[in-house]
Specification:
Number of domains: 2
Shape: elongated
Protein name: 3-dehydroquinate synthase homolog
Family: Belongs to the archaeal-type DHQ synthase family.
Strand content: 35-45%
Number of helices: 6
InterPro entries: DHQS, DHQS/DOIS_N, DHQS_C
EC number: 1.4.1.-
Keywords: Amino-acid biosynthesis, Aromatic amino acid biosynthesis, NAD, Oxidoreductase
Number of strands: 23
Length: about 325
């Protein structure tokens, strides 16, 4: 999960409030005496000599002028967060530093620089630190971080088996965000093969739409969460971050507002993506939908063998939700 910090070179209530409302989780204060005033504006971390994150201890700032500064940046202990600023905003120094350490934050001045920093060497910086006194720039950078959260190569899964099951416990995930048509969550019986279960954006004669909701499936299944990790659906609770994806594979972070576990009739859905198996156990109801390659939702009650829907596959192997390389067989 990429972080958005705002550098308040001068205390300005409107600018700092805009940054917090745009998703900033930390404010770098040039004037440490304004710490308590910033705390009243929102629950954020203060980066200063007397802040929650202390400059010179927890966080260090380096202006990169040459190779010597690059070498200094990579020598700090792993727990120290390093803010780097380049004199002419060239990418090469950042590439060299990012290749050697994780906790790198890049000072940026606009949306374009932020997007570039997030993609350097594919993994990007840990976060961006915006220096700007323009409200619109602050908002655009906040949106850029939200939009660039993750990009996956989704695959087409051809349905091979549909089997109604008996009653089971399923998890309905209500988020604090509104999802759009074509968006949903990746869930599956195995982390190696997941379906894109569509959000409840569609209305029907019996039930109103619930665009904040994904009826995600049985309690035992995996769901993708930030950081290329997974969780069991039954582990989700209020405040947890989870990932939602659109039909083009663009992912963004949302937060769980409520996770409801209820006993309902279930259905097993299986498919193949090339030679890889994808399977999930979902609630057997008209409002539960998978996602077609063009983003159109299709109800599980209308699904038939041979239909094509979207999914995601990778090599199997997770340990406490983290990807590991091991020999594993899941049936």
């Amino acid at each position: 999960m990429k972080e958005f910090w705002y550098w308040a070179e001068n205390y300005d209530k409107k600018l700092i409030t805009t940054a917090i409302e745009s998703g900033a989780t930390a404010i770098v204060l040039s004037d440490p005496s304004k710490k308590e005033e910033v705390k009243k504006l929102g629950r954020v971390s203060i980066v200063s000599e007397e802040g929650d994150l202390k400059l010179g201890e927890d966080v260090v700032y380096l202006l990169i002028k040459g190779k010597e500064d690059e070498e200094k940046a990579v020598k700090y202990p792993p727990h120290v967060k390093v803010i780097v600023e380049t004199t002419d905003w060239t990418i090469i120094p950042l590439e060299n530093i990012i290749a050697q350490r994780e906790e790198v934050y890049a000072v940026v001045k606009n949306e374009e620089e932020a997007r570039t920093a997030l993609k350097i060497l594919e993994k990007g910086v840990k976060g961006v630190v915006l220096k700007s006194s323009d409200m619109n720039t602050i908002k655009r950078v906040g949106r850029a971080l939200e939009e660039e959260e993750e990009k996956l190569n989704l695959c087409v899964v051809r349905i091979t088996r549909i089997l109604p099951l008996g009653l089971g416990d399923r998890v309905c995930v209500d988020t604090t965000s509104l999802l759009s048509r074509g968006e949903g969550m990746l869930v599956g019986n195995s982390s190696a093969g997941m379906f894109l279960v569509h959000a409840e954006t569609e209305e029907n004669p019996y039930v109103a739409s619930r665009p904040f909701r994904v009826n995600a499936g049985a309690v035992h299944m995996y769901i993708r969460v930030p950081g290329n990790k997974t969780k069991y659906l039954c582990e989700l609770s209020t405040g947890d971050p989870v990932m939602v994806y659109d039909y083009k594979g663009r992912g963004r972070l949302v937060y769980v507002g409520r996770a409801k576990v209820e006993r309902r009739p279930m259905i097993l859905v299986e498919g193949k993506a090339e030679n890889k198996k994808v399977s999930a156990i979902l609630q057997n109801a008209e409002t539960i939908r998978l996602t077609k390659p063009d983003g159109t939702p299709i109800s599980v009650v209308e699904l038939k063998e041979g239909d094509e829907v979207l999914g995601y596959t990778e090599e199997a192997g997770r340990h406490f939700g983290m990807k590991v390389e091991e020999t594993i067989t899941e049936k």
